[in-house]
Design brief:
Blueprint lengths: L1 E2 L5 H14 L12 E7 L11 E8 L5 E2 L3 E7 L9 E4 L3 E2 L4 E8 L12 E2 L9 E7 L9 H5 L4 E7 L18 E4 L9 H4 E4 L30 H5 L11 E13 L4 E6 L12 E7 L10 E12 L7 E13 L8 E2 L29 H7 L4 E11 L7 E4 L24 E6 L14 E13 L3 E8 L2 E3 L15 E12 L5 H14 L5 E7 L14 H13 L6 E3 L17 E6 L5 E2 L13 E4 L2 E4 L4 E2 L14 E7 L2 E9 L21 H21 L5 E6 L7 H7 L5 E2 L12 E3 L2 E3 L2 E5 L6 E5 L16 E6 L8
Parallel strand pairs: 1-17, 8-9, 16-18, 19-20, 22-24, 26-27, 35-36
Antiparallel strand pairs: 2-3, 2-12, 3-8, 4-7, 5-6, 5-10, 10-11, 12-13, 14-15, 14-17, 15-16, 17-18, 20-21, 20-23, 21-22, 23-24, 23-25, 26-42, 27-29, 28-29, 30-34, 31-32, 33-34, 34-35, 36-40, 37-40, 38-39, 41-42
């Protein structure tokens, strides 16, 4: 099974910036998460060998294409002498996620089988039994000759020592010979221990096109002219995994229904003579690698190649496909199979079968009971959707989420609510266009794709099952508008939370202006704004800068220009590199406040490492430091943003505000993945963080049971989550999102699901309030942040509860 491939050229370009941080890890200290050495063979052309040449194979374990321009592979004898030199082979081109890149080295006089077409060629005669190979950023030969010295050379991306190699990662891998290479596991995992990561076995060189020794590259001519015995439904089988995975098939018949000419190139074929089993898909994707597909829609073809289960990532389901194909076109202009209609009547009520957290891949499909099983049984099949409502706005990657079940958990503004872990939305599907001349239209939540949209069912790690459209419906703009909340009254303290998405002083002015208008106009200039994702003044530049004065000056100036007040600010600068987020960004929480309406109570002593505590006095409770941070040394905050606590005074009354940004959901298994029910591994840290905040609020209320406490921010979890249960334990806090009507309980849209990650909670001492989620971002294709802000207006002298 292969893992990972770029979702599109656009994504590859977008991710390249992030990869630049990890593309050059210190050898042995930071395992490579992108390009690795996947196989080494030095026995080519030796006596007894089958292959005629040595080779080095690279693999890409990342999620975007890895550009090899400027990189080299270099070889050093296993036991280098004083005169030994690293020998260099230059690389060009790139390697796609999950794919391989082949470097042919010196040929010998033995062997009978040639390598597949190499992607790069060197002249190095490598030892069959002992040596070191390095992937290096740069063309200059390495000079290190010990493992310790090489570990200090930051140009080394990955290194493999085999046999008795002196230079290796931890322990060399053994077993290489004239007939055996050393190769990495299919996952391309790199733990920086050669013996653990690689093993000896028969050489299996593969190039970027998927070509192997003794076989051809993609779409080689010369295929059969008569159908073989295998049909597509035989390949697909009755489970998620092909019973023919890894086997070669010959002369598989089908009609080309769609072609993908960029990104993960290939085409789909569908059998016009289906079987009677609803579980077996009648279509399959033919992967052509770097070669453009040489077929057209309507061609009747016979395809031969190797069946492969390709998994976009380790936790997703896989796609059944035919690789390294040989294709024979029998005729052209043939009618296409009628599309299967996907609508509310066709999609079952159940979302996914359960395996108690294990993989569902081996379970027989039940498309009449589970939506994921239905979509899997239609993998690659031509389908039709009609008059579908947009539930997730068009993204920068030309994707839009729609629902084929319009009555399923609708929100007040046209989305689909994510209601609970056990009530998944079965009708959501992502739509992308295969026609570059007719991309997906720019749509907001609540718009409608009217008429027919037709295409083939595909799967990727960024949302699961999707429609690769060959025909698109027409956009009906339903005129979604950004909300403007009311102005607070004189007696009301208005407190808001807003995630401003990695704002730093180097951002474009347009971003500052749009975010500022959100505060000044849409939020009607709250008295206090708790900001998440304010970065240091040079953003991702990792040079030790931790201050945010320049960022906040630009932001508050922009608010004034948008008609808002002149805000002051308070924050506690983090220790460099200790608060997670974008490397170098030093993300933190910040309070803005309008000094014309509210006062900040400054108390010295708050810094990045000193915990703030509740101090009981004769007049109530105060803070030991303001601003301060909650128990910053606790392991709950490892590589995560620490809560910011501040004491404010409004109309003579103290108010305590806690700004939060809990750990992200990164690392959780996807809803659509192979593991059901999916594990939420990131939840553990958020529950710990919630318990820390709950304990601090409890200490405030123990000192003064009537203390007015507002806890707010991006908690990265749902109102029904264990995180929220831990935060509200003992009823010390009330989540205000639950006071809204059910169809208004959201502030964020992900994979077409309207959900709540941002929250405002209040202590029992706050008895009169008016709460509002102000929808200005999450539902729109044009957004300054992916979060909607929230606001609560509090009557600090009020009595009974209210909205």
């Amino acid at each position: 099974m292969q893992i990972s491939r770029p979702r599109s050229a656009a994504l590859a370009a977008a991710v390249a910036v992030a990869l630049s941080v990890t593309a050059l890890p210190a050898a042995f200290a930071v395992p490579s998460a992108t390009a690795v050495i996947s196989e080494v063979y030095g026995g080519g052309g030796n006596s007894g060998a089958t292959l005629t040449r040595d080779f080095i194979e690279l693999g890409n374990a990342g999620t975007a294409s890895f550009d090899l321009a400027g990189y080299t592979v270099q070889y050093l004898p296993g036991t280098p002498s004083a005169g030994s030199l690293w020998q260099v082979s230059t690389l060009t081109g790139s390697v796609a996620p999950g794919r391989r890149y082949l470097v042919a080295e010196a040929a010998g006089t033995g062997g009978t089988v040639a390598l597949p077409t190499a992607d790069a060629t060197g002249t190095v005669a490598m030892s069959a039994t002992s040596g070191t190979v390095a992937l290096v950023s740069g063309s200059a030969p390495l000079t290190c000759k010990t493992a310790a010295d090489c570990a200090a050379d930051t140009r080394i991306v990955d290194l493999v020592g085999y046999g008795s190699a002196v230079v290796r990662e931890t322990t060399p891998v053994t077993g290489s010979s004239a007939t055996a290479s050393v190769s990495r596991a299919a996952s391309l995992a790199d733990t920086d221990d050669n013996a653990a990561d690689l093993a000896a076995g028969a050489p299996t060189p593969v190039n970027t096109a998927g070509g192997t020794s003794g076989g051809g590259g993609p779409e080689d001519p010369g295929g059969p002219t008569e159908p073989g015995t295998v049909r597509i439904h035989d390949i697909q089988g009755t489970t998620r995994l092909s019973p023919l995975d890894g086997q070669t098939v010959t002369g598989v018949p089908g009609v080309v229904t769609a072609v993908r000419a960029s990104g993960s190139r290939g085409f789909w074929i569908q059998d016009t003579a289906p079987d009677a089993d609803a579980r077996t898909s009648e279509a399959v994707f033919v992967y052509t690698g770097s070669a453009a597909p040489a077929v057209a829609v309507g061609d009747s073809v016979l395809v031969s190649g190797k069946v492969d289960e390709y998994a976009p990532s380790a936790t997703t389901q896989s796609i059944t496909e035919i690789t390294a194909p040989k294709t024979t076109v029998l005729s052209s202009g043939n009618a296409l199979p009628a599309p299967v209609v996907l609508d509310a009547a066709a999609v079952p009520a159940g979302y996914a079968p359960t395996a108690g957290g294990a993989s569902v891949e081996s379970l027989p499909l039940d498309p009449a009971t589970y939506a994921l099983d239905l979509y899997e049984s239609l993998e690659g099949v031509r389908v039709e959707i009609a008059d579908t409502r947009v539930t997730g706005a068009t993204t920068a990657y030309g994707e839009v989420w729609v629902t084929v079940e319009p009555r399923q958990n609708p929100t007040v503004r046209g989305g689909t609510l994510y209601a609970s872990y056990t009530d998944q939305n079965t009708g959501g599907i992502k739509v992308m266009s295969l026609d570059a001349a007719r991309p997906v239209p720019t749509a907001d939540v609540g718009d409608v794709l009217t008429g027919r949209s037709v295409g083939v069912v595909d799967y990727d790690s960024y949302g699961g099952y999707n429609l690769q459209a060959t025909e698109l419906g027409t956009l009906q703009d339903n005129g979604l508008r950004r909300e403007v909340t009311r102005k607070q009254k004189k007696r009301e303290l208005a407190v808001a939370t807003y995630n401003v998405e990695n704002l730093d002083a180097l951002d474009d002015q347009a971003k500052f202006d749009t975010l500022a208008a959100g505060v000044a106009v849409n939020l009607s200039s709250p008295d206090i704004v708790s900001l998440e994702e304010i970065q240091d003044d040079n953003g991702a530049v990792n040079d030790g800068t931790v201050g945010s004065e320049g960022t906040l000056k630009r932001f508050t100036d922009a608010i004034v220009a948008a008609g808002g007040p002149r805000y002051a600010w308070r924050y506690v600068a983090p220790e460099d590199g200790k608060d997670g987020g974008e490397p170098g960004g030093n993300i933190r929480n910040v309070f803005l406040f309008n000094p014309e309406r509210v006062s900040f109570v400054d108390r010295p002593g708050g810094d990045a490492t000193t915990p703030v505590t509740a101090v009981k006095t004769r007049k109530g409770v105060t803070l030991s430091a303001s601003p301060g941070r909650i128990d910053p040394a606790s392991t709950a905050w490892n590589s995560s943003r620490k809560p910011l606590v501040g004491e404010f005074s409004f109309r003579g009354e103290p108010v305590f505000v806690i700004g939060n940004h809990f750990a992200s959901k990164g690392g959780d298994q996807p809803l659509h993945g192979r593991y059901q029910e999916p594990a939420r591994s990131s939840e553990t840290q958020r529950v710990q963080q919630a318990a820390e905040v709950n304990a601090f609020v409890t200490s405030l209320l123990k000192a003064d049971k009537d203390a007015r406490v507002i806890t707010l921010g991006d908690l990265n979890d749902f109102a029904f989550s264990p995180t929220m249960s831990a935060l509200t334990a003992g009823r010390v806090l009330r989540p205000l999102i639950t006071t809204l009507p059910r169809n208004e309980q959201y502030s964020y849209v992900y994979d077409g699901n309207s959900q709540t990650l941002d929250h405002i909670l209040t202590s029992p001492g706050i008895r009169r309030f008016d709460y509002d989620v102000v929808h200005i971002n999450a539902e729109f294709a044009d957004q300054a942040s992916d979060h909607d802000p929230q606001i609560v207006r509090v009557d600090v002298k009020g009595g009974s509860h209210g909205r």
